[in-house]
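Escalation from tier 1.

The customer reports that the assembly of two entities below gives different structure tokens on two consecutive runs. Tier 1 could not reproduce it. I'm attaching the input and our single run for tier 2 to review.
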Amino acid sequence: MNQLRNIIAPVGRRRFLGSAAASSAIAANMTVLDLLQNPVMADEVKRQGKRVILLWLAGGASQFETWDPKPGRPTGGPFRPIDTNVSGIQISELLPKMAANMQDTAIIRSLNTKVADHGTGAAILETGRIPEPGVQFPDLGAICARELARADSKVPDYVSMYAATEGRRHGYSGFLGSRYAPIMLTDKMVPRNLTRLEAVSDVDHVQRNDLRRLLAQRFERGRGHSSSVTSHNDAYERVRGIMASEKLFDIEQESQAMRDKYGPTQFGQQALVARRLCEAGVPFVKVARAWWDSHGQNFETHRELCADLDHVMDALLNDLKERGLLEHTLVITLGEFGRTPNINASLGRDHFANAWSCSLSGCGIKGGTVYGKTDEDGHAVVDGEAKAGDLFATIFKALAIDWETEYHLGARPIPITDFGCSPIDAVLA
Amino acid sequence: MFEAKFNKTNDWGIPGIAFAVCRHAESGKLFFGSSDFKVHEFDPSAEKPEPIAFEGDGHQSYVTTVALIGNTLISGGYDGRLIWWNTAERKAVRTQDAHAKWIRNIVVSADGKLLASVADDMTCKLWDAQTGELQQTFSDHVPITEHGYPSMLYAVAISMDGKLLASADKQGYIIVRNIESGETLATLHAPIMYTWDPRARRHSIGGIRSLAFSADGSQIAAGGIGTIGNIDHLGGNARVEVFDWKSAERLHELEDSKYKGLVERLEFHPNGKTLLTAGGDNGGFVTIYDLESKKIAHQEQAPMHVHGHVLDEWKSLYTVGHGKIAAWTIEG
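Tier 1 run:
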């Protein structure tokens, strides 16, 4: 039974009990192997230790200058395609390090998300669906935090870093409640107010929390069940654990050699923090690298930003792999849209959502694959069109999250994958 | 005050983007490098002028710069290649893998003997323009910006007497050298040409895009763009700085807020007091500055963002750029 307890604890007592009640097959002498025969529990176990690092290319990176080059075409721009270490796959010459490291990465070249304004485009790619009035959908980070986090976790479930001010968006947990809202890092590498005030002793801090809990419980009892009050209290209950995670945000804890690997840019430093957080058990970390909105001087902008992306992504994937974490960590590069095939008079590219690309690396992904195809000038998808919901279903399945899961908002079932969407199995391991 | 005026007399649509142009003095034919990876001949005196592409093993990326020595055209491109062409046959005669990254600009000395090239491998190279033999390589520009990103080496100039070589980079540094000795004579800085946005967008834009010596070699002019608020666009003032390079004194700071964008091209009048500039943002401009008064002597809106120009003794002007070639006359 001790063996059983060891498995139950990490998967969450409530989930286990729910599963056990639903299944009369769980016998008193159940072994671990028996446990894994239960589909619900098997999925739970599979999810253990799964992590996500989302490299959010805010403002919209160009697919032509990254994952879907169009050499020699009027829309193709000046950069040449280069061979990768996977036969038959070429990417832009601006990503030479990734070209030598494609064995763990899949490219989706056929996103058609239709909406090419920053706000709505970002909302679609954050939630996997078109925003709907009256419903606050949780974003990908909140869903992953909900599905992947341990109930007894002492670390944050969702951390979002977005240092540039342009296009900054706060992650949102929507109807899942504040328990799954992100800790947002904007101007500093360490969350604000994480450190206990010097004027408050540790004992005082504990006692204050006890008093707050007592008052909160009384408040809650007086008002019957309230999801917002429960959510609020859940968040407070985790304060002590999160306060103890301060060092996770401190890259000075890493060797100089490791910091050098990630490079001197803020994006590199934040990616290193992301690895530290994932290693410690944080299930979802978003690192936003702004701002790719290259209406003027697209090629100069991408020379600068792709060098950063290429170096940081390569360093991150290698580091995760060397630590044995890559098979459990899904690294995503994604933004709100891509950029136009046409090159404007300022040598820029404008917003474009009809045929663009993203990448998925690591956990659950069939590396060295390309899915989907755009036409010769990149104006339209000609094969394997994928919506945001398809991408989300793919991400969920890669993480062993049941992509057909439904949440309930009152009596209304809300699937985590948008209606009509399904995983892209071709990029899944 | 320089009194001349100029008028656009014609313009022609062309496919793609023309980045640089030169003109054969006797035939009047133009040769331009294009975003279609080709070099084209264009005869503006023809009844229906059409670009005619040069044949054979050419460039594999944008052709960004051209120079003419007699009947030999030299082109440089983002593929890192320099190619020598026979203009009569429109065929390549020599190809040189010259730089590891994009070639941004080339210039030929007035006597036609030397060719200088600059590229994003952050080297400035001197070549024998006749044989293609590499003579000197200068690696004195800093390859990484102070913010940790790749820098770019955009502009190059040779003085009229062939003794001075200057190059200029993204962060606004200009290096002046003695060609014969290779010695660095001056390092100048025009920091306003480089905008780093540390807060809203966390990347940079700008750089010195054009460079020219005065006829006597005492002054050097640098063109680019002023400080930009929103670096998603080319919304900064077109900017020129003129230095006395020996004393490092900044003689002139000229900014135009009417026609914004990059100053892609610069040329001193032989009088040393007049400067022609051309460039643009989504649109384009041609502007003549009178340096004595520090004022615009004349200005016209161009029908496109101007990437290249060629003057015929300050009597006629051709500009090339986004989808167009335009012809201008200069009177006065």
